[in-house]
Amino acid sequence: MNSDHMPSAKRIITSLVLTAIAAISASAVSTDQAFEKHASSLRTKLKDRDFTVVVERPFVVIGDDDPETVKQWAKGVVRGTVERLKKAYFTKDPANILEIWLFRDETSYRKHAKEFFNDEPSTPYGYYSPSDKALVMNIASGGGTLVHEIVHPFIEANFPSCPAWFNEGLGSLYEQSGTVDGQIYGYTNWRLRGLQDGLRKKVVPTFREMTSMSDREFYREATGTNYAQARYLLYYLQEKKLLVRYYKEFTANAKTDPTGYKTLQRVLGERDMRAFQRKWEAFVMRLVY
Length: 289
Ligand SMILES: [Zn+2]
Description:
By secondary structure, the protein is an alpha/beta fold. The chain folds into two domains: 35-158, Glutaredoxin (3-Layer(aba) Sandwich), CATH 3.40.30.160; 179-286, no CATH class. Helices cover 58% and strands 11% of the residues. A hairpin with a 2-residue loop joins strand 1 and strand 2 (59-63). The longest helix has 41 residues, at 5-45. The relative contact order is 0.08. Zinc ion is lined by residues 148, 152, 168, 171.
């Protein structure tokens, strides 16, 4: 190599490196700026009204409770949930800046869902509206639904082809959750009773049927047990310390096994899924809430 070329090659490399560094820091700064800008435009829009706006990335949290309470939700439940979900499952943040609206009671929730989003919620607790880029919550109903809804935009960003059964199973699992050994952990909750009733009445579908439901079919809740069945399947995996592995293998193999059923069978190590279903049913019948 001609030594005359060395300085110019070095110069090019140096300038490339500097450009790359500038690009990285510019994007980091602009993201921070984008969140602040989003928050400040909300503050302008809500001027003279009793709302507090807090940036809690990847969200902007807005609430009409007293400012300290809104900040506590943001720095407590929202931050803690995001941290623990990312630790266990998710590498990507949602692609858009999402708003979390915490309305202080059901009246405020319904009134403002209509005013800001032209929505008439079908649930008294809260919901995620991808088209509004917003989680809309009646926070008087507690933090459970908030945690549930936070799962959905992360699934959307990290597992876009995720079927409803897994998306809702995971959201539902963490409605009632805490931290065990530094990991997010779902406890038994109110959905247990309906599932036990369904099992007694023998209306709960097989796992092959449940996992292969279209989203529409899953949400139709023909037997009223779909959310609960999905939740307590994931609860079972959690108890066997297989849930995070199942998520990883499901996402890695989603092209060849889009329902997750084959992956489920493999991760469980069960050859006979009918026998597994009976074992799971007995497990569920022994649970208490
Ligand atoms: Zn949900």
